[in-house]
Amino acid sequence: GKSSEDGKRIIYSMVSNVDELGFNSILLQVRTFSDAIYPSLIFPWSKTISGKEGVSCGYDILGTFLNACKRKNLKLYAWINPYRIRGDSDTSDISNSNPAFQYLGTDVVEVNDGVFYNPAREESRKIIVDGVEEVVKNYDIDGVIFDDYFYPNTEIDLEEYEKYQQEHPKVSLDTFRFNQVNDLIRR
Length: 187
Prior knowledge:
Oligomer: single chain
Number of strands: 6
Radius of gyration: 18 Å
Strand content: 5-15%
Helix content: 25-40%
Distance between the termini: 38 Å
């Protein structure tokens, strides 16, 4: 509900407060729900910013934070929730510009107590990695923080695990899942 200028003033004030309190870094959540707080070619604008997914707030929030941090000599880390698409099972507000939209009703996206990318699917890892690459190529951030990179539930990847076990019968489900997460982090 704020104008672009009001939003920018709030960001500069927040960064100044962090600096005055003696902190040296900010962890900024740039992707909460398969969305973005910056202009992205992959993810739609975050509904947490404008109230509706895909609607721009009129300025680059990440860029504004980065500029404010540079002025105060603070580090800025991009905080990403890689697998989470929604915190509940309602998919009605996932816009068609969200990469998850095309996978609704498939095993790439799981709808349960939330909506999540399937960690064992290559399509999911590609979306996540492409999104990280977009941020690090376009912004001079100091690092990327992954949050919620654990498995969203106990059934999301059972089909992929069954296929994997045909060639690797001695690999446990826990090891398979550990390897899926490690592969994402490695990339």
